[in-house]
Amino acid sequence: MVPRDFAAVGLTVEQRLAIAVSPKLGIKTLQQLIDLTREKPGELSYAVTGVGRFTHLLGELLQQRTGIKLQMVPYSGNSNQAIADVYAGRIHIMTEGYAGLLPAFQSGDLVPLALGAAQRLPSAPDLPTIAKASEALRAALEMADVREPLADRGAFVRPMSPDEVTAFIRDQQVLWKPAIERIAQEMN
Fold first, then answer.
1. Is residue 118 part of a domain?
2. What is the pTM of this model?
3. Residues 28, 45 share a domain
4. Best CA proximity match to 31, nearest among 17, 45, 19, 23
5. Higher pLDDT residue, 134 or 115?
6. What is the mean pLDDT of residues 30-40?
């Protein structure tokens, strides 16, 4: 949604989010993270540098799409403390802008698992994209041992492509916007 008070001029760059883990976990792929989380439901934590930011939403989306359960740990301010805690193994996972995590990737302080993009970065051709992870997530959601426990808890398994997720979010914004505006108006 474009704000009413502004006119779009153009898009210059896109900063993509990355999913990273502590090197102490000993994993190298997003699928390994999903598998480990299923072995230890609710035991792994992820750092959020701002509740409600895209970094938080990516962690929530990852849980929703895979049926895993993570413990969210909020941080305020910049990501330095969160990076330090993930590196030390006090927190297991972090989602943050790729550029912000790049020094930690280069030093080996964090292990990059996936990039939230449809295509790989030319500067990081070995880093898989979540688009590929989306295919793996779809396959995982087809597995009976994933689908059945979710269904038993009253959840609808709805595998979606990245484009379908974008359309779903847009539809949800349209659906809920009037109620949110009414609540906000009543609170003022």
1. yes
2. 0.65
3. yes
4. 19
5. 115
6. 92
